[in-house]
Amino acid sequence: MKSNRPLILISNDDGYHAPGIKKLVDIVRPLADVLVVAPESARSGYSCAFSATDYLRLKPRHNMGDTTVWSCTGTPVDCVKIAIDQFCKERKPDLILGGINHGDNSSVNNHYSGTMGVAKEGCLKGIPSIAFSSCFYNEDANLEPLRPYVEQIVSKVLKEGLPKGICLNVNFPATESFQGVKVCRMTRGSWISEIVKEHHPRGYDYFWVVGKYRNDEPQAEDSDQWALNHGYVAITPTTIDVTAYNFMDTVRGWDIK
Amino acid sequence: MKSNRPLILISNDDGYHAPGIKKLVDIVRPLADVLVVAPESARSGYSCAFSATDYLRLKPRHNMGDTTVWSCTGTPVDCVKIAIDQFCKERKPDLILGGINHGDNSSVNNHYSGTMGVAKEGCLKGIPSIAFSSCFYNEDANLEPLRPYVEQIVSKVLKEGLPKGICLNVNFPATESFQGVKVCRMTRGSWISEIVKEHHPRGYDYFWVVGKYRNDEPQAEDSDQWALNHGYVAITPTTIDVTAYNFMDTVRGWDIK
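The joint structure predicted for all components is written out below.
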């Protein structure tokens, strides 16, 4: 991969074999050299988790043109860390992409998403980073309509970069025909009814984490959920600095000694 | 637990057996009824991860006075979800606490920390939430000097609450005598040299994720790392809304179609 083209590192949380990551590689290969390091198995909901106690292994899996797809036994964040350490010593990626995720990462899913974990880790490493997600949960869904949007966003960021500490969370509504693009803020929402209790045949209870998403501001036209519910591609710029600046003076007033 | 006292839910990422969580229970029991649901084993670095594909189990482990300590096989976030669903149907917690973590959760660790995962999950559920962490990594460290600060902060938040969407990240420096309290912003920093390659006796390579923290702004007196490095207790108010508002107009100007 010694070329004059930019280098893009791609990972995801659905695993190296997911149709979404293959589609993303297919879309960006004309624009850049591409390196893929993605989880060996599905790691949905892994957020910014990394493997503090488990060892990692790396395996070459298959080729897409001149791109070798590697699997890593760890989390999405681990994939970014090991890819940069093991494959990018001489040439740092110009851009890091997560996705295309099979499922919605807007609203509070920004916090839980392993796809956003990829983008945040890239951003923490000072590299422009974008997460792409489709609200189609079905892995057989047609993601081809995303192509021109992904191409334009990737080209723009390759050309202009992103400010330090800011990455993009891009979500596509569950449709094959989009109304356009909206730049949004994160929707306030909640997961409810999250735990389902089951009884094991051996006599004990166990639990699944599932849940329903509740939009707490469905009328907010500047929110990413509103954009998605109305057929728009939602771009939610996301900050690494999570300081609540507007509450600092109140806490100072508490005068804890 | 039917009393007029407030109810505090406590979890952590070091596991239900860690000295830090026992110390936290001990400190707050005079102030409230306490419920503990914490990971069965250490879950450091689990961020806001939840178990999307693994089932959970719950087990009562031991009692601290009238508080039953439960373990959960899942992540710190799972612990909050299952505790609220299974134990808080009639009475929602008034406050959710993570910790006391054995290790520093300031700066970018805010994103990786399972202790902050507890606080963020509580905040996502609309409940005032605080993470407490000590920069002593040694589990034998004396955490008794934290007591008056934890008491004051917990009492203040029980009385006044926190704004929706804001939780507190409280870190204590690795000393037994504090200079006071500083309300801080998150320090810009990075983890570097994160991957160590080893060779397995069976002939393959494997990798550990470790690393060194690099402070990218060591002179910034308003940052949480500066406070900790100068002996102050650091309170970093943390926001759930991670929208990068100041970059939205730039992205709108890209005019993606």
